[in-house]
Backbone:
């Protein structure tokens, strides 16, 4: 099955700095990689995703990069703001069979942005 | 609807009691997934549906957990005879394709 490792577990930055969170995965057949933001008391919110046919995707201040050879993908947040403070999760779905779509999540990164 | 709806928001049960959770997926989405989030943010997959058919139930403790997604009704997750270790937040997510999954706000179950 899929195994997803996420680092760091906590990340503290000053407002305006960049933040980078990294994940590795084990199943080379995985072809879709979402990132979720979870605020306290809320459900995970899909913030960006990438498919295996591209190496990078950007959406305003957030970007995701994918290295299929090394089996790792990263979330980059630029010009961080206090409202970016949350827990961020990477995930990878099972690629086939009856477990298709079942997400395996990373361990989560608690991001704190200090004003 | 445009968002996944889950009810109730909170549920408190005594050990051994039944608990039933509901999920209304986004209209037009044919996949529904249930996950359990326990302490330290760990997510555990429970079950998935494609329309009203069970797609993958490998995460379900079948002796006490059951789930359904019937046409024109919210999906449901039922726990018979709850145990203390069932205390968690239960999320459902819906998806048009089994890739992009959109999560609901969750139901917090507390078993006393």
Residues:
């Amino acid at each position: 099955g899929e195994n997803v490792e996420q680092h760091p577990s906590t990340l503290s930055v000053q407002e305006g700095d960049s933040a980078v969170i990294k994940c590795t995965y084990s199943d080379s057949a995985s072809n879709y990689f979402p990132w979720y933001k979870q605020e306290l008391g809320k459900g995970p919110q899909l913030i960006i995703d990438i498919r295996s046919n591209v190496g990078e995707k950007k959406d305003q201040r957030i970007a995701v990069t994918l290295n299929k050879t090394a089996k790792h993908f990263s979330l980059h947040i630029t010009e961080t703001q206090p409202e970016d403070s949350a827990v961020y999760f990477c995930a990878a779905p099972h690629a086939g069979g009856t477990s298709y779509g079942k997400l395996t999540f990373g361990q989560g990164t608690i991001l704190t942005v200090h004003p | 609807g445009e968002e996944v709806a889950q009810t109730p928001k909170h549920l408190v049960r005594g050990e051994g009691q039944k608990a039933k959770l509901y999920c209304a997926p986004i209209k037009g989405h044919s996949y529904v997934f249930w996950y359990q989030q326990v302490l330290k943010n760990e997510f555990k997959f429970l079950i998935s549906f494609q329309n009203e058919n069970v797609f993958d139930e490998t995460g379900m403790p079948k002796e006490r957990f059951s789930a359904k997604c019937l046409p024109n009704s919210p999906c449901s997750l039922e726990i018979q005879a709850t145990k203390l270790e069932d205390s968690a937040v239960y999320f459902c997510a819906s998806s048009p394709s089994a890739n992009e999954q959109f999560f609901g706000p969750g139901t917090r179950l507390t078993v006393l």
In short: Chain A has a mean pLDDT of 94. The longest strand of chain A covers residues 86-93. The radius of gyration of chain A is 14 Å. Chain A has no helices and eleven strands.
